Amino acid sequence: MLLVGVMGTMATDGVSSDVMLLTLSAIIVLTGLFQIVFAFLGGTLLIKFIPYPVIAGLVTGVGLLMIKSQWRLLAKGWQGSIPYTVQTAYPVVIALLTALIMFTITKMTQKKVPGTVAGLIIGITLFYTLLTIAPVTLQGD
Length: 141
Hints:
Layout: H1 2-12, H2 17-40, H3 52-79, H4 90-108, H5 115-133
């Protein structure tokens, strides 16, 4: 989510795509390096001092921000602002099927497979399968 914010700010400031790609790459590489250094220095032991409700709230907040950022794309197929085709229904179909998979897979596997992991893998597979069957043609806004 933070990367999207950084890239959005850079895009509105008129930064070229080459500089944006370089910045994105540097952020990702440095983040990985900092995480490795933090792990080697024993920083992972500090997590026991952070209360569980704080971590749960942080993860929930990030999830809500992700839903908010994708909501317009999901609702676009229902608004009628673009011509209704099979391709405009992709986000709605994928979201509903992924949610269905997430809620049912744990019951089918007796909680051996986390629903979020199964939903992610099967949702991505379903999305690319739909794109293979009926490719999306993009038109200018």
